[in-house]
């Protein structure tokens, strides 16, 4: 969590790694139409907001390499002046995702790049996003969503399940979508498959192995499954929190289409691995880090622990906490020095301009030496009710942080251990927070999966993580001279 803004990003972006879209697409339009001035202006308007939402654009040799590959694959789209018209950004985000917005703006997170194993896979992911731009998917989805809010169908579905179709439901669901970085307009399942098809075509035109689209989707599916197992949850993301078809369901389709097009083409594996060596992996300490079930922020000097059975997603504006018993986020807002006023303001903000949402009463307490105030409001949700809790802490006369939580009526106590875990951290604790980075090594004689996996900067599932990171099956062995990736401490 690096920065906080209540401005919502209202555009048709296209996350690659999240799951599940519904709806129909249509025939792919001609991709030879140049990007229009209107499209370029729309993309330029939202580009700075998008960068801020997803950790900012990275610079340096890693970003330059991603930009080079992205522009080279964009040329294959046939869009006029594609190399000059496209802006390719490497995002400083710890989630596996890629996006596209109108006007030729395409993005991939550094975390997704670290999961790839060759340049063809990088070109495939970026080609998928170029395909969204070329097929004008965002514009078509925006046209279909005029009856909804600017954020489109995802929030309408979420509010319908969680809080009914009330204005409060839309506002609260938007809040939690922000916290988990699921705030973009969804593409239809057919549009996602169209983008896969276009990406495969671009790979072939550029001379890459077209199977790369399928192999990178397979790695995404494996990573999703591993993350779910480690968090003790189901691998499938609920439909209401999804923006892409499950990568696992698209793997065979992509591989079949690539095979039908004919095998061949380069992957540039060693070049790719050499170029991404040293890339930041996982959370950036400047945005706070998730270590197991604990979130620690060395700059904000705070830490808290998620409830048992819940998992966290670290965003640039908030940390989301999700589980079967409810969901929450930790963030901050402007603070004038009065915690009671602060808490009431958060309820008002959740309810929207025309809402009377307010806590039944406010309670003042102290948590680990921090002055704190909390309140609960019960909200009708169709045939049932939910409890909304705001729990705020004063860290300084001009600085406060708060949790917002939603749970079925009478079950908000599931978050009490988390509320009570918020604490200041010492300077020594802050200094001890060390980021992870990607290290590319050459397999030596005698090295095995087990021996290299023990060098991974994790206390558990080292071999599982190593195999997923390197796209190695459970029976795959290593060959001397082969390059592989490790995740190690930056110092």
UniProtKB/TrEMBL annotation:
One of its GO terms (biological process) is proteolysis involved in protein catabolic process. Residues 439-486 form the LysM domain. Its cofactor is Zn(2+). Keywords: Hydrolase, Metal-binding, Metalloprotease, Protease, Signal, Zinc. Residues 1-24 form the signal peptide. The keyword Protease applies. One of its GO terms (cellular component) is membrane. Gene3D superfamilies: LysM domain (3.10.350.10), Metalloproteases ('zincins'), catalytic domain (3.30.2010.10), Mog1/PsbP, alpha/beta/alpha sandwich (3.40.1000.10). It holds the Pfam family LysM. One of its GO terms (molecular function) is metal ion binding. PROSITE patterns: LYSM (PS51782), PROKAR_LIPOPROTEIN (PS51257). Coiled coil: none annotated. This is M48 family metalloprotease. It comes from Erythrobacter ramosus. The lineage of its organism: Bacteria, Pseudomonadati, Pseudomonadota, Alphaproteobacteria, Sphingomonadales.
